[in-house]
Amino acid sequence: MGKMVHVGSRKVGVAPGTLIHIGKKHLTEPKITVIDYNVDNFQELVAENIEEVYPFKDSENVSWINIHGVHQVDLIEKIGIHFGIHSLVLEDIVHTDQRPKVEFFDSYIYIVLKMLQYDKDKEELIAEQVSIILGSNFVISYQEVIEDTFDPVRDRLRSSKGRIRKQGPDYLAYALLDSIVDNYFVMLEKIGENIDALDDELLDKPTPKTLEDIHHLKKELIFLRKFIWPSREVVSSLQREESFFIKESTSIFLKDVYDHIIQVMDTIESYRDILSTMLDLYLSTASNKMNEIMKVLTIIATIFIPLTFIAGIYGMNFEYMPELKWHLGYPVIWALMITVALVMLAYFRKLKWI
Amino acid sequence: MGKMVHVGSRKVGVAPGTLIHIGKKHLTEPKITVIDYNVDNFQELVAENIEEVYPFKDSENVSWINIHGVHQVDLIEKIGIHFGIHSLVLEDIVHTDQRPKVEFFDSYIYIVLKMLQYDKDKEELIAEQVSIILGSNFVISYQEVIEDTFDPVRDRLRSSKGRIRKQGPDYLAYALLDSIVDNYFVMLEKIGENIDALDDELLDKPTPKTLEDIHHLKKELIFLRKFIWPSREVVSSLQREESFFIKESTSIFLKDVYDHIIQVMDTIESYRDILSTMLDLYLSTASNKMNEIMKVLTIIATIFIPLTFIAGIYGMNFEYMPELKWHLGYPVIWALMITVALVMLAYFRKLKWI
Amino acid sequence: MGKMVHVGSRKVGVAPGTLIHIGKKHLTEPKITVIDYNVDNFQELVAENIEEVYPFKDSENVSWINIHGVHQVDLIEKIGIHFGIHSLVLEDIVHTDQRPKVEFFDSYIYIVLKMLQYDKDKEELIAEQVSIILGSNFVISYQEVIEDTFDPVRDRLRSSKGRIRKQGPDYLAYALLDSIVDNYFVMLEKIGENIDALDDELLDKPTPKTLEDIHHLKKELIFLRKFIWPSREVVSSLQREESFFIKESTSIFLKDVYDHIIQVMDTIESYRDILSTMLDLYLSTASNKMNEIMKVLTIIATIFIPLTFIAGIYGMNFEYMPELKWHLGYPVIWALMITVALVMLAYFRKLKWI
Amino acid sequence: MGKMVHVGSRKVGVAPGTLIHIGKKHLTEPKITVIDYNVDNFQELVAENIEEVYPFKDSENVSWINIHGVHQVDLIEKIGIHFGIHSLVLEDIVHTDQRPKVEFFDSYIYIVLKMLQYDKDKEELIAEQVSIILGSNFVISYQEVIEDTFDPVRDRLRSSKGRIRKQGPDYLAYALLDSIVDNYFVMLEKIGENIDALDDELLDKPTPKTLEDIHHLKKELIFLRKFIWPSREVVSSLQREESFFIKESTSIFLKDVYDHIIQVMDTIESYRDILSTMLDLYLSTASNKMNEIMKVLTIIATIFIPLTFIAGIYGMNFEYMPELKWHLGYPVIWALMITVALVMLAYFRKLKWI
Amino acid sequence: MGKMVHVGSRKVGVAPGTLIHIGKKHLTEPKITVIDYNVDNFQELVAENIEEVYPFKDSENVSWINIHGVHQVDLIEKIGIHFGIHSLVLEDIVHTDQRPKVEFFDSYIYIVLKMLQYDKDKEELIAEQVSIILGSNFVISYQEVIEDTFDPVRDRLRSSKGRIRKQGPDYLAYALLDSIVDNYFVMLEKIGENIDALDDELLDKPTPKTLEDIHHLKKELIFLRKFIWPSREVVSSLQREESFFIKESTSIFLKDVYDHIIQVMDTIESYRDILSTMLDLYLSTASNKMNEIMKVLTIIATIFIPLTFIAGIYGMNFEYMPELKWHLGYPVIWALMITVALVMLAYFRKLKWI
C-alpha cells in the first residue's frame, strides 16, 4: 500500500506532445477489439494489425474500438493520428498517471477515469487508467491490464438487451462509465465488510494487528478518495456541458451515474468517520486497559510494600530489640499487618479503585 | 450498528432500467391503499389487485395511492407504466439504497427520502426508503416495512381537519414530507436523552461502557447525518424550483419543512460537538485518574523502598557489624527511618503531590 | 448544561398552523404593554384585556405592543388574527424552539431571535425566544420570561433621547435587535472573564476541576454559536432585502448591528481556539507531571532495589557463607552499595533525568 | 496574553450615535498635527486648539490631519461635525474595539485597521485601533497611543521623496495603510524568530517551559489572525470598489498592499501548522521519554525482584531448611540467581527492549 | 528547515517603487543570456554589458532574455526602464520573497513562481523566486542562483525540437512554466520515496528518529504547499484571462500545466493525510509497547511482591514464632508460595494479560 501514492518519474524537460509510456510496462501484446453495431447489425472482430481499425472511422454504425494495453506507444500514436486526436491527449493516454478529467474538443470528448481492482495476493487496491474518446460515431477506449470489467457491456451489445443497440455512441460511453462506477461499489463493499469485521474484533478482542488494519483501511480510503473525488467533476461536466456529442436522452442516464458517484463519496466519508471513531475507541480501550493494569500493580504493591517493610524491621539483628522477646510479639505484628492491609483496602474502596 | 453503512451488492453490468429489488426482502404481501378526496368527498379503499388503482389516474379529485412493500417488482412496474413513470425512476423505487434526492420530470416530480425508526430490540436506528411521485392530480408513495408514520395524515384527511382537504396534491406531498421530518425530531430527542444520561454518568461514575456508548452515539449521528444532509437539498429544490406541480401557497409550508431540516442538522452538529467534548472529558478524566494512581504508587513505594533497604541492612548476618551491638542501635535506626520518611513527605508536599 | 441542546417534543402528525405552546410553561399571567408615540406625543399603557390593543392597528403613530409570556395560546391567536398574521407565524411564536430567522410577508416582516441570560443559581446560560412582527406602523414583540432587556429602549422612548421618537417602526425594531445583540456582549464578557480566570488557574495550579470548567465553557460556546450563527443571516437579510418596511436611513444602523454580530462570532471562534489551546496545555502539563512522577519513582526504585537485593543476600542464613566471617565484610558491602548507587546516579545524569 | 480577547464592556441600552470612549483611557493630552501639501508647497503645524484645523477642510492642497489620542470625546465630535462625518462613524472612532472594516459614504470613505506593537515588558502583542477618513481633499487619521509608525510617511512628505507629494489624498491613505501592513511583517518576523528558537530548543533539550512558549505563540497567532483576516477584506474592497475617492493609478498600489496582507495570512497559517507540528513532536517526544523511563524501571525491577525473593527465602529462620546446611548451598544459589538474571536479560533482548 | 518560513526584514517606511534587493546576496556576477529565434533563425549570446540587450526589445524574432542573479539592483532597473516595466514590478523582482502571482499590464504580463531544489548537504528544500515578463515579442526571465532548470528548454530551442521554434513568446513562457512545474514532481517523488522508506521502517522497527523524520516531512509539505497553492491560481488566471499576449493555441498547453499543478496539490494532500495516519500509527504503536512493558512489570511485581512478603515474615527474629519450629514449616511455606503464584497467574490469564 505504501507505494500507492508514488508519483511516476516525469520526463522533465521533454517537449510536450512527445509520447512516452509511463506506468507499469507489460510484456503482453496489446489487444485491439472492435464492435460495430446499430439496431439491426452487429459485427465484432479482434484486429490483427492497426490498419484493420482505420475504416471504422467512417462507419455509419456506432463503432467501439477497445485497446487493451497502452505501452506500445507507436500503435497508440498511429491510431490517434488517423482519428485526428490532439498530441497532448495521446500523451495523456500513454502517460497513465493522469488525474480523472474530461476535455471537450471540437471533434471529440476525451475522458479519463480510474478503474479499481482488489489484488488478493498483495491485499491492496490497484488503480488503472481508462481513457475514453467519444466521437460523433465512434468510441475508443484504452485500458491497461485489469481483466475486463467491460464484458457485461459487450454482452448487452451482443444480445441486444436493453436499449443499448438503439442508442448512439454517447449511450455506449455512458454504459462504460456506468460499469466503471458500479465497480467502485464492489470495492466499497469489500472495504465495508472489512470494517464490519474489524468492528466486531474491536469490541471482542482488539490486538495491535487490529490497529494496523484500521490504518491500512484508512490509507485505502485516502487512495480511493483521491481518484473518485475528481471523477465527480468529470461526470458532472459531461452532464451539464451542452455538447454536440451527448444527446439529451443520454443526459438523464449520466445524472444517474453522477448520483452513484455522490453516493460513493458519501460512503467513503462515512467510512472515514467510522474508522476515526474506531481508532479513537481502540486507543481509549487501550488506555482503559493500561489504567486497569496500573491499578492492579498499585493495589498489590502499595499493600505489600509496607507489610514487607514491617517484616524487614523484625528481621533485623540488633541485640537489643525488646519486641522480639515479647511473648505476644509475633501475633501482635500479624494483627498490625492485617490492620494496615485493611486500611489500605478501605482507602482504595473509597477511591473507587476496587 | 456496524452494518448500517453497508452498501448493497449492486447489480454490476446489468442494463439500466432493469427492475431488481435491492433491500431487505419481506415475505408480507404488499398492501395498496387509495384515498381519493376533495373538499366535500372522501373515499378510502384497500386495493385487492392492481387494476383497481388504474382509474384514479384520471380522477378529478386528489388521489393518494400508498404502496407498502416494494419488493414485488412486477407490481411496481405495472403501476409505473400505467402512470407513465420513467424506467430509471422505477428502478430507483425498488432499489432501496438511494440517496435522498428530487427529480423534476415533465409530468411529475420524483422525491426520495429516508424514514427513520428506532429498533428497541437491537438498539439501533433503521432507515427505510420512502419514494413519492407527485403528479398533477395524484400522489403515489412507496414505503418499505416500518409501521405507518403516515397515519396522522390519513386521520386529518378523514376528519377533514385543517386545510388539507381544501388543497391539492402538492399540499398532500408536503404533509407526507412534514410527517417524515417530524419523525427525525423524535429520533433526535431519543439521542438527546441518551446524551444527557451519558453526561450525568460521565460526571458521576464513568465506566468503559460509557466510552462505548459515546462511540455508539457518534456512529448513529454519522448515520443520521448521511441521510438527513441530502434531504436539506431535496426540500430546498422543491421550494425554490418554479414547478407547475407546486403552488405558491404550498411553497411557504415547504419553507417551514426546510427550516425544520436545518434545525435537525444544527442539532446533529451540536450533538457531534458535544459528544466530542464528552469524549475528550472522558479521556482527560481517565488520564487524571491514572495520574492519581501513579502518585499513590509512587508515594508509597518511594517512602517504603528506602526504609526496607535500611531494615535489610541490619538484617544482614555479618559477624562484625558494630551497630548491632550498640545499646541504642534499634531506636536510632527507628529515628533514622522516621526522618527519611518525613523528608520524603516534605519533598512530595513541595512537589504539590500531597 | 446537559439539557441545553434538548429538542422539545414535537407535535408529530398535528396539522400545521395548529397553535400548541412548546416551551417552559409559566404560571404567571401574560403581560401586554403598549407604547404609542410620535415626535410629539407619547402614550404608554398596560392592557388589561386584549381588546384594548386592537385600536392600535390603525393608529397613525408608531405603536409598540410587547407581549411578555407566550404560553396563553388563545391570546396570541386573537391578536394574530386581528393584525392579519399568518397561522404558521403564530405557530412559530408560541412554539419557542425556533431557529433564528426572518420571513418577509406582504404586510409585515417576521423576525425570530434568541435572548440570552446567565442563570446564577444553576450556573448555566438560558436562551429565550423573542419574536418581532414589524408592520407598516406597528411593532409587536413577544418574549418569554427573562426580565426585561428592552427597558433601556423604553427609557429612550419615554425621555425622547436620541433620534428614536423621530423615526418609524423600523428604527424601533432596530433598537430592539440592537439591545438583544448588545446583550450577547455581556454574555461573552462573562465567558471571557471565566476564560481569563481559568487561564491563570491553569498556569498556577491546575486541578481536575479546571478541566471540567474548560469543558463546561466549551459547551456554552457550542450553545451560543448555535443561536448566534443564524442571527447573522437574519440581520444580513434585513439589511440587504429591499423592503417597504425598512427605510434606507435605518439600513445603516442595521449594518452596525450586523458588524456587532460578526464581532461576536469572531470572538466566539477565538474563544473556541483558545479553549482548545488551553485543553491541550492542560493535557500536556498533566502528561509532563506524570513524567515527573514516573521519573521520581524510577530513580528511587532502581537505586534501592539492587541495594536491597545485596542486603538480602547477606541476610541469608547459609551456614557456609565466607563473606560473613570476613572482618571487613560489612564495610566492603557498604562500599559496594555506595558504588552501585553512584553508578546509577551517574547513569541517570547521563540520561538527563536529574 | 490572557486578557487579549477581552470584549470591552459595551454600553448596553445607550442610544446609537452617543459618543462614549471605550478603550484604555490615557491621561495625555490628545495631539493634533496637520500637514498640508501639494507638489510645490508643504506646511506642517501642531494644532493648539481645534479651530486651527477647520480651515483645512476647504484647502486646495491635500491636508492630512492626524489625531493622536481618541479619548477626548468632545474634540472628536467637534471635528467630526465640522467635516460632516456621520455620528455612527464618530462612535466607532472613539469606541476602539471595532473589527477592521471599510465603509463607503457619499463624501468620504471610513477605514478601520489595527496597528500592532510588541510590548517588551509584558512580552505580549498590543493592538490599537487606527481610523482613517479619506475625503476628496483631506485625510483624517485617528490613533491611540503607540509611538508613531506614521513617521516614515511624514519624512517622505517633508523631503518630497518618491511620488507622494505629486499624488492626491488617496495615495496618502494608501501610504498609511502600507506602513501599517509593513508593521505586521515586523511582528511576524519576531514570532518567526521565536519559532526558530523554540524549534532548536525542541530538538535539543525540551522543557515544560518550551510547551508553554509554544502555547503562548499559538495564542498570539489566534490574536493576530483575528485582526488581520478582516483587514484582507478591507483592502480588497478599497481596491475593487469604483470610488470617486480612489484614482486608478492608486489602485495598483492598493493591490500591492493586498498582496502583502495575503502573504501575512499565508505566513500566519504556515506558522500555525508548524506550531501544531511542533506541539505534536513535543508530546511524542515526551511520550517516548516516558517509554524509556518505564523500560529502565521495568528491566531493573523485573530482574531484581525475583532475585530478592530468592534471597528472602534463604533469609527465613525455619529450623529445618536442609539447603542452609549444604556446603555448596551458597554458591548454588548465586548460580541460580545469575541464571535467572541472564534469562531475564535474554527475554528483554528478544523483546528488543535492550 | 526551521528557517524556511522566515519572513525577510521588510523595508518599513520606504517609498514604494524603491528597488532594494531582499534575499540571499550572492557575490557572483549576474549573468545575462539572450536567445533570439524564429522558425529559421537562431542566435544565442551572453551579454557582457546591459546595452547589448537593448536592441532585442524591437527584434522581429522572439527574444528570450534570461537574467541569472537579481541582487545587482541597478542592472535590473536599467533593463526594466528600457523595456517599460512598472517600478512596482521591478521592486517585486528584486524583493525575492513574493508570493506566486500574475499581473496583467497593458504591454506585458508579469508572472512570479517559485523554483524548488533539494539541498543534499543540509537535507532541506530550497525555494527560489523566478520572475517572468511576457511581452509581445520578448520574454525576460529572472532567476536567483539554482543551477539552471531551464536548460532543457534551451536545448529544444537550439535543436529546434518539437513545436517551440514555430511558436511565439507565449509558448516560450509556457515552456518555462512547464519546466518549473515538472520540477515539482521531482521534489514530490523524493518526498514520496522518503515516505515509503519511513512506512517500512514504521512497521519494522520504529525509533524516535522515525518520529522526527515524519515531522520533518510534514514541515516540508507545509513549505511546498505554501508555494504551490498560489501557483495554481497563477496558471489558472493565465489560461482563463483573455489576453493579447496569449494565443488560444497556447491556452490548451497552459491547461495541461494547470492539470499538473492540481495533481501536485492532490499528491501533497494525500501525503499529508498519509503522514498523519503514520504519525497516529507511530503513537498508537508506542502506546501499545508501553502497555506491554507495563504488563510485564506488573505481572512480575505482583507475583513476587507477596511472595517476598511471606519470605520476609519468616525471616523475622521473634523468639516465639511457632511455625519456625514445625518440622514441615519450610515445605508448607513453599507450597503456600507456589499456590499464591499460581492463583496470580490464573487471575492474569482471566484478564487476558497472558
How would you describe the overall organization of this protein?
5 copies of one chain form a homopentamer. With 354 residues, chain A is an alpha+beta fold. Chain A has helices at residues 73-82, 87-94, 151-159, 169-204, 208-240, 248-313, 322-325, 329-350, and strands at residues 31-37, 42-47, 62-68, 101-104, 109-119, 124-134, 138-143. Chain A has 2 domains: 2-284, Beta Polymerase, domain 2; 314-350, no CATH class. The first copy, chain A, is built from 8 helices and 7 strands, in the order βββααββββαααααα. In chain A, α4 runs antiparallel to α5. Chain A is rod-shaped and about 120 Å long. Chains in contact: A-B, A-E, B-C, C-D, D-E. At the C-D interface, α3, α4 and α6 of C face α5, α6, α7 and α8 of D. Chains A, B, C, D, E: This is Magnesium transport protein CorA. Chains A, B, C, D, E: It is a multi-pass membrane protein. Chains A, B, C, D, E: Pfam families: CorA. Chains A, B, C, D, E: One of its GO terms (cellular component) is plasma membrane.
Helix content of chain A: 40-55%
Output the CATH homologous superfamily of the largest domain in chain A: CorA soluble domain-like
- Overall outline of chain A: rod-shaped
Structural class of chain A: alpha+beta
User: What's the oligomerization state?
Assistant: homopentamer
- Mean of residue pLDDT values of chain A: 85
Total of helices of chain A: 8
CATH C-level name of the largest domain in chain A:
Alpha Beta
At the fold tier of CATH, the topology name of the largest domain in chain A is Beta Polymerase, domain 2
Work out the number of β strands of chain A.
7
Distance between the termini of chain A: 45 Å
Largest interface: B-C, 68 and 67 residues
State the major sheet of chain A: 7 strands, mixed
Radius of gyration of chain A: 34 Å
What percent strand of chain A? 5-15%
